[in-house]
Please model this.
Amino acid sequence: MTDTLEHGGTRRSGTVPRTLGFVARKLGGAAVSLGLVAVLGFFLFRVLPGDPARTMTRSAPVSAEQLAQLRHRFGLDQPLYAQFRDFLGNLARGDLGTSYTYNRPVTELIGERLGPTVLLVGTATVLAVLLGLWLGTRAAWRHGTATDRWFTSVGLTLWSVPTFWLGLLLLMAFGVGVGPLPGLFPVAGMSSPDVPPGVLPRVLDVAHHMVLPCVTLVAVIHAQFMMVMRSSLLEEMGAEYLTTARAKGLRDDAVRRGHAVPNALLPTVTLVFLHLGMVVAGAITVETVFSWPGLGLLTYEALRVPDLPLLQGTFIVLASSVIVMNTLAELLYRVLDPRVRA
Amino acid sequence: MTSVLRLCDVSVDYATPAGPRRVVDRVNLDLDSGGTLGLAGESGCGKTTLALAVLRLLPRTARVRGRVLLNEQDVSQLTWGGLRAVRWAGASVVFQGAMHALNPVRTVFDQIAEPLRVHSVERPTVSALRERVRELLERVELPPERARAYPHELSGGQRQRVMIAMALACEPSLVIADEPTTALDVVVQAQVMDVLRRAVRERGAALLMISHDLSVLAGTCHRLAVMYRGAVVEQGETARLVTAPEHRHTRELAAAFPTVGDAGSRHVDGSAGSGGGGNVLLSARGVGVTFVDRSRTRTRAVRDVDLEVCADETVALVGQSGSGKTTLARTLLGLCRPDTGRVRYRGVEPGSSSGSLREFRRQVQLVAQDPTGALNPRHTVYEAVAEGLRIHRDVVGETERVRAALEAAELRPAADFVGRFPHELSGGQRQRVVIAGALVLEPAVLVADEPVASLDATVRGEILELLLELRRRRGLSVLVITHDLGLAWSIADRVAVMRAGELVEQGPVERVLTEPEHEYTRALLAAVPSLPRVVD
Model:
């Protein structure tokens, strides 16, 4: 009776091929996006006004022959399609061209700046995500109370503060020192020249340098994770399955941790991964204020010239990392939310 | 006999900005161990609030007065720890609409095992939990491998079975079932009620069952209590209460669910139903619709259906959920393309020219199932009704026509309603606004998809009366899609029975519903809960 009259049971068969198909589709989509990024990266920096050869030689008077020689060296005298062909060929070998200003391979430049940036911005993003989600959960669970109002208003105030201003303020208060307060943290760079040898002292030294820029970043960006988590959890709080969980005799915090938060976290996954993708971009303002030798500072310097191969390189690296992280988010979402798997 | 639940003068007030609002008013109820008590009433009468008050599950704005004795223990005196211990182990709840009452991201096993973990002194082993969950699923007649499923992978009936298995997990002495079968169709409802009844009886638990449907309660409970505006207006033995109700509201509740085969609840003159001999307005010939889902599985939602709606006729399309009724209706409305066959309006295929499609859409109007979802919350009643005219760029005398449509839908005086927003209206009024929105275009056919499924017992009668009235006065033809055979019995001339995409039987209501030819029609009729006719 049950089988014939009650429809809507599941077909579990075919779950594995469907998952494989899904993964293949997502990876294929990501590959297409990466290809478009490469094309866009090439043409975007070719349509910009200005002659690269002139930019390179702005500081010194040069003859027409020297200019022609420069153009030839950088391949700028070739027709556009030939340049594009060479660009794609080089890209496939991991060669992003040569920087005008540094006169070194872009890949090498980006490579040595990547570490410091991922260290600083990565740490700050992870801390901001954890802090934001935790505060957002607390605020929503006690929504309407003083706790909620306090967290929300502090978070929003910090979010609206200009990053460089907050950075400079912290730099002055804790780096330089105000009045009787001595400078507690270094003001620039990521390491001191006079560090005793050994791994531990060097790690501590870098950590010491990282405190101020990291605090600045966390203070500014945690609010968005908090607000998204808060509204997402508020939406879940009216849900009937929470009444079920309470009726089962669960403690309030078990209801929150075991039932409400796992559902409320789902909408934050995309946001968090987009931010992790942006980590590579560095934080231009913070890195500049604290002279942190990362990709943000490199981009800032490249923009001032402008150093086209370097900008093109950072553009491609950044865009690719966002695409990769976004793809990861979509794959992870499928693991976290059984409804997407159906 | 020991008392499982005793309510002494229980009142519940909600704090609102305008002062306390009383939702439950001095209720006294008694339920002995192993007993069954049905609590009937419309939505908003306070029955769910009363049920939640038993386990102190109400929001903080609620204030409970009086004494709630669960197993002779005053619930309001318990500490939080004591309360948690009583929850689910002393009394458990089968909530309404198990789609939302189950956590969407956790498996059935997790959710059934959770109260077992919480309420055992020693931490139970995983294999012991598996064994127990398997046993519980067996008791509600679900295959044990369903333990691995997530709620969205189950049908409505299966979810409700999971909910029942969960409620029985800790062997409570009381199970509170709050509208356990409301969203389910008749056949599944009958199966789920059967499982609930048996499972509760086997374990010797007492059952407090809440419903707006007196006939469902009458089939399960030995005693009934009727609630109206927060107070219990009548209670007693089921047999006495349904045969000789004393309170007016009990009679209203009983009358709201017409009995199939009872001449008193049939509101149309059978001779009017010409059974296809009249002037055919809307017709489907050999219509088939196939869906292809993401895994490329082809589902034939509608197969080779022939159906006609004639002038001045009400046709009921009945069947279980998932039988393809709504797909067929969407096809008849031109919202869905048939793969095979033809839909014609007055002999013409809509869509053969753009003008004919527009004219067709005017003539055949839809009344959707859920009026709350069908109305834009930011549009006033006026805008909601006038929208159809605006879409058809037919704005001459708009104000006057909107007013006429509202009055035709019995929202009188229309001036009182035009400026209101949906949230300022009751459920019945909202459905009238939806109907007015369809009437304003002066259609010839109304397609009503479960027009009263989301409405209260007494309001339901009014809306059905309105549909009958529209037909009497305007000669409007209506195609009613419903899983409710009582509804078909009370207002339709002809009925078409659908199963798995096919029409298995159609003909005049009197013939099909009293002498069904197809076994499926007989199975449907057998599943309808029936109430001994209430004497006036």
